[in-house]
Every structure is written in C-alpha cells, then in structure tokens.
Design brief:
Blueprint: E1 3-6, H1 13-33, H2 39-122, H3 127-203, E2 212-217, E3 220-226, H4 227-230, H5 240-254, E4 259-266, H6 282-299, E5 308-312, H7 325-331, E6 333-340, H8 343-351
Parallel strand pairs: 4-5
Antiparallel strand pairs: 1-3, 2-3, 3-6, 4-6
Helix pairs in contact: 1-2, 2-3, 3-5, 5-6
Length: about 350
Amino acid sequence: MYICLSISTPKTPIMIGYYNLLLSVSLVFVFALSACVSPRVVEDLKKKTERCEAENESLKNENEKLTTSNNEINATLEDIRKRMKGLERDTSIMGTSLEKMTKNYNQINDLYELLLQKNRELLTGNQNQNTKLMTKLQLMEEDLQRREDELKMLERALDKKKGDLDLLKGELKTREERVNELEKIINDQDQAVAQLKQKVLDALRGFENKGLTVEERNGKVYVSLEAKLLFPSGSIVVDSQGKSALVKLAQVLEVNKEVNILVEGHTDTDKYRGTTGGIKDNWDLSVLRATSVVKILKDNSTITPDRITAAGRGEFVPVDPSDTEDAKKKNRRIEVILTPKLDELFELLNSN
C-alpha cells in the first residue's frame, strides 16, 4: 500500500490530473452504488460529479492561460532583446557617423578660414581670380551649412535612439523582475517540497524496511506503504503498526498547512473474497481503505477536513503490471498525494 505526498510546481497539469482523479472516483461511485442507494443519493452524486467536471474544465482553462502568458512573456522578452541589440548597433553606427561628420566639419571650417584669409590677400589682385574665389567661398559656405544641418539631424536622431534604448532597457528590466519573481516562487516551492520530504523521512524513520518508501518525483513527495504495514488481508481496519506510522505522518502534515492531501487506495488484480459486510469488489475495498487512512490522519491531528480527500482506484493503476506475487504485493498500497496551494503564484500571474 502506498502513500503519495506531492507538492507540485506551477505546472498545473498536476492539479488537472488531481481533478480527473476526483471525477473518475465520483463516476465510479455513481455506477457502483446506483444499484443499492436511493435515487436521491444517486442524484446528489451526479451533481457532485458535474461540479467536479466544471472545476476540471476551469483548471484546464487556467492552465492554458498560464501557458499562454508564459509564452507571451518569453516572446516579448526575446523581441525586446532583439530590438535592443538593433538599437545598440544603430547607436554605434550613428555615433561613428557623427564623429566623422564632426571631423569633416572641422576640416571644412579650417578650409573656410583659409579661404577667407586668401580672399583678403587677393582683394587687391586679379578681379577674375577674386570672383572665382568668391564663388568657391560661397559654395563652401553652402556646403558647410548643409553639413551643419545634417550634423544636427544626426544628433537629434541619435538622441531619439538613445531615448528608445533607455525605454527598452527599462521595459526589459521590468519583465526580468517579473520572471525572477516567478522563478523565486517556484524555487521556494521546490525547496518546500524537499524539506517536506525530509520531514516525512525523519518522522517515519524505522519503517523503511517494513514496507515504507519515500520518494520525490515531478515536484511531489511519494510515501509508499505496502498493505502488510497497514491492513490485515481483506480488511479495511488499520492495525496498530500501521496506525503508528500514520499518526507520525499526520503530525508532520498538520504543521504544513499550505498542503492539500489526497489519499488513494489501490489493490491487486485478485478478486475480493473477504466477508466484510458491504464490500463487493476491489473498488469498494480500495475506497474504504483510503477512508480508514483519512480518518486516522484527521482524528490524530489538527488537519482540517477541507484539506484532505479520500479516493479508491481499485486494481486499475498498478505500479507493476505483471502478474507475479511480488508485483501484486507492490500494487496493494495506499498513496497519499500532497499538493501545495499555489495562490501566491496565481495572484502574481493574474496581476500581470
């Protein structure tokens, strides 16, 4: 029997899987109990199933929004980087052009001064030569004015480019701060998962060789308890050894209030042959065993009922699909899945 504790990152397909699980369980209960429960109870179960489907659809939409938002942010950041590189390149080119224009302007200005000096020297000389020099001087003045105008235009364009570059840098900084904030939340949650795993290991130390394993996969902590550690064969009553392990687990979970708990019951493929009243098959057995574990966790801690859910999956989700005795022993388990509350992450995404 397995107990899975999991804290997911902001990758919400995990929560979608969680609600798919609830939906599957609700459907199973509707079909399994419709033969022996009053129509009113069946109708209530159907309504609960419909609400689960609506919640599942809402989570799917939220997942799509988060994925779209993340893609848009990454695309915008990449576009800003490209634009910034282009502006830096343009700024460098225009700076070089400005330097050349300034140098040319200084050379023309020196030449202009030289021509003025020559003109003064030739005022008393040949009139034709003087006229030619005056014409040349006028052309030089016009060219100098044109270059001055071009130089001013380049300076204005350069100032505009610098302003655009500053704006883009500011926007990029803002976006990077948002990304860093998201990454910090995700990293904090990853650290919380690792810390929770260690707390569970410390609390259940001594049960490792008695059918207990603790793992962290995909941002979740999985605590696996084989059936022999919790239940006698075919029974739904947890024995003293199993209760001891569950009480220690409950003490860890009650102080980690930002974690939701899902308890799943699993069986092997052997047909149920017990004599406990009301149990018809492996579905019933898996659900009632999960409920027994939930009650022990709740009754021996301050865990509130709204944080914990019981579910049964029968023999349909094996960890080892082979038909050997060893595989069946692995498949008879309880899995407790711990999921972190992602309110802070969702609020940050919605605010942006």
